[in-house]
Design goal:
Number of strands: 18
Structural class: alpha/beta
Mean pLDDT: 88
Strand order of the largest sheet: 4-6-7-8-11-16-12-15
Largest sheet: 8 strands, mixed
Helix content: 40-55%
Radius of gyration: 43 Å
Shape: elongated
InterPro entries: Metallo-depent_PP-like, PGAP5/Cdc1/Ted1
Low-confidence stretches: 72-87
Number of helices: 18
Organism: Pseudoneurospora amorphoporcata
Keywords: Membrane, Transmembrane, Transmembrane helix
Strand content: 15-25%
Distance between the termini: 74 Å
Protein name: Calcineurin-like phosphoesterase domain-containing protein
């Protein structure tokens, strides 16, 4: 039996040797990307007034959560001794995994859903069956030819694009799910929030809306649940605590909050102020929870001696300390600006804000912290963040159609109302307001800013001459300013007594084109200052292309390994020559069989080939000689027939011709 020139199993084995290590390395990176990115919640500092640790120590403490290593104390007698494992440090009692703008797409982006399957073929059938009217037969045939062209250049491509889009939706769901699942497992958050734009469009039908909501809860955030309505409360003076925070362990004392998703309504969920109606808000609250509510979490004091320092109207009326409490405010700010389509829904939002303000603790007291979760960012001048101020309005009724940021007036409601800050030094608590932080989405690029007002600014009134010659009074007043957080920190604006301010973090989108980003917010309590502090970090996974490449490579590597194992089993148990069978099968394919794999021939194969060629040459020579003899005989016959016809025209018989020829030969011989 002759040897094969190519071995498919050997080629597959060599390919697996190359791609298996690559696939394994990429898979490990993808499923442990928080480890390789050193992602961790910021760690509260050890020393008072020190910055939070967002680097090595925070990462190390997160690693310990998975290794379960016991802390090793430092030997105090030997200053040069070092511990085998860094002593454990308490994590922040409130750790929020913040995700923004997943924007799940659906059938509205699939061509066959809104155009139908092969619509031009259906029109062609109606034209051919005379179900349509045309001016003449020529116009009917002309339209039929147009439909035939559109079938190939539109219908076929739309069908292929629809299948590709459905597959892309499926992959995008699991890409987003991978970000949430992996970070939730690695970072161990106590709470999770999605800051609006859960879905891709507010103008979908109810069936499409609930189908996307089903994908949200059963694919992307599988195992999660929205905050129950009986827990999401309206602000009140007398309220029940939502839960308690803990500093004694790596997780919250109530595991239920690690599974709950605090959803914030976005413009792609319920629309802007000119779009919001009761139907849009109703179905959102049915699937994802309320759009306006608050949660209150208390931090129990571990040092019981500190309870004597708390404010008490009878026993300790001079104290400014309250029980440490974190207030989480979920706010729909899409209808704060006007004009709004539904004044009733807008009034509900403002009533909620007034309730938050009226039930907040006085700014003179310490110990309470306000975390505001919303969607549309606060006002910022052009150039501070990627999105600049933008407002557009509907033509038919003048209501608000679109906005990139809140107006300056609406932003003041957050800064001066909810947080109680003021540019007036004579205001209560010198205008410093309440400790807090604002988290939102909407700007997919993300932004980290510091809003502040300069109390030392001297307001002036100057007399200015207008263009018409009259004089007017121009007032320069204190105004809210905003800078990038890093810039404000560099300029030492943060923490100045004459510049009260608050941090606003616009979380970068978790969509693939923005790197699959996630925010990590830590909030802890400083007992020496009796104030809450917060720090924010990010953890990007990478674009969706990485997720696709890794899983495609894993699929083909596993498929190749299965095929190689099946070939080995078939050869060892059943005696099947897999290589020969594959090569024969490929040779039957015209495009594959024409390309042969070359190798060096053996001596026996060369001699056999020479003998075969010699036999072929001999056979060809015999055929050529036979053909030449046949050709000469034919020529003689043709010559004789011509001579016979000439003699017949002259009246000479065949016998006379033979006698004449014989006489000529005799005369020739005699001569």
């Amino acid at each position: 039996m002759s040897q094969l020139s190519w071995s498919p199993t050997a080629t597959l084995r060599k390919a697996l040797r190359i791609f298996l290590p690559i696939s394994l390395a990429l898979t490990i990176y993808l499923y442990f990307f928080p480890f390789f990115g050193k992602c961790a919640f910021p760690l509260p500092p050890v020393q008072h007034n020190a910055p939070a640790d967002t680097g090595y120590h925070a990462f190390l403490e997160t690693v310990k959560l998975h290794l379960s290593l016991p802390p090793v104390p430092v030997d105090g007698t030997d200053p040069t001794s070092t511990p085998a494992v860094t002593p454990s440090r308490p994590l922040a009692p409130f750790r929020l995994l913040a995700l923004a703008d997943p924007q799940l797409e659906g059938d509205t982006s699939i061509p066959t859903e809104y155009l139908g399957v092969f619509p031009h073929a259906k029109r062609l059938f109606r034209h051919l069956t005379f179900q349509t009217s045309h001016a003449s037969l020529r116009w009917r045939l002309r339209q039929c030819f147009h439909e035939v062209v559109d079938i190939f250049f539109e219908d076929v491509f739309n069908l292929a694009e629809s299948y590709r889009k459905r597959f892309d939706h499926w992959g995008n769901d699991y890409y987003l799910a991978h970000i949430y699942r992996t970070l939730h497992w690695w970072s161990r958050p106590t709470h999770v929030t999605v800051l609006g734009d859960l879905l891709g469009s507010q103008w979908v039908t109810d069936d499409e809306f609930y189908w996307r909501a089903h994908r949200f809860w059963n694919r992307v955030f599988k195992g999660g649940q929205h905050v129950p309505d009986d827990v999401a409360m309206f602000p009140a003076d007398e309220y029940d605590l939502t839960g308690y925070l803990s500093t004694s362990g790596p997780s919250n004392d109530s595991e239920v909050w690690t599974k709950r998703i605090i959803n914030v309504a976005g413009n792609h969920d319920i629309g802007y102020a000119g779009d919001i109606n009761t139907n849009l808000t109703g179905r959102f609250e049915d699937a994802f929870g309320r759009i306006n509510y608050e949660l209150r979490f208390e931090l129990p004091l571990t040092n019981k001696s500190l309870t004597n320092t708390l404010f008490d109207a009878l026993d300790n009326p001079l104290s400014d300390r309250l029980v440490p409490e974190l207030r989480l405010v979920v706010l729909n700010d899409m209808n704060l600006d006007t004009p709004a389509l539904s004044p009733e829904l807008q009034d509900d939002t403002y009533s909620f804000i007034n309730g938050v303000i009226n039930t907040a603790s006085a700014v003179q007291f310490k110990g309470h912290f306000t975390l505001v979760l919303t969607h549309v960012p606060l006002y910022k001048p052009d150039g501070v963040c990627v999105d600049s101020p933008l407002f557009t309005f509907h033509d038919h009724d003048g209501t608000l159609k679109e906005q990139n940021q809140l107006s300056l007036a609406a932003s003041k409601g957050f800064l001066e109302g909810i947080l109680g800050m003021s540019g007036n030094k004579d205001a209560p608590a010198n205008g410093q307001g309440r400790r807090g932080i604002i988290l939102n989405g909407h700007d997919h690029e993300g932004c980290d800013t510091w809003h502040y007002i300069n109390q030392s600014f001297v307001e002036e009134e100057t007399l200015v001459q207008a263009e018409d010659g009259e004089f007017e009074i121009e007032r320069k007043q204190r105004e809210w300013e905003v800078k990038r957080y890093k810039q404000a920190k560099k300029e030492s604006i943060i923490g100045r007594e004459d510049m009260p301010g608050v941090r606003e973090v616009t979380v970068r989108s978790m969509m693939g084109e923005f790197g699959g980003n996630a925010g990590l917010l830590s909030v802890w309590f400083d007992e020496e200052e009796w104030e809450w502090k917060a720090e924010y970090a990010t953890c990007p996974m990478g674009t969706q292309h990485l997720w696709w490449v890794v899983h495609f490579m894993d699929f083909f590597v596993i498929l190749g390994a299965v095929l190689l194992a099946a070939a080995g089993v078939a050869g060892s148990l059943f005696g099947v020559d897999v290589d020969r069978a594959v090569v024969r099968g490929l040779r039957r394919i015209p495009l594959v069989g024409g390309r042969r794999h070359k190798r060096r021939m053996t001596e026996s194969e060369r001699s056999e080939r020479r003998e075969r060629s010699e036999r072929h040459e001999r056979h060809r020579d015999r055929e050529e000689r036979g053909k030449s003899r046949d050709r000469s005989a034919v020529m003689k016959d043709r010559t004789r027939s011509k001579s016979r016809r000439r003699l017949e025209r002259r009246g000479v018989t065949p016998d006379q011709q033979l006698w004449s020829e014989a006489k000529k030969r005799l005369d020739y011989e005699k001569s």
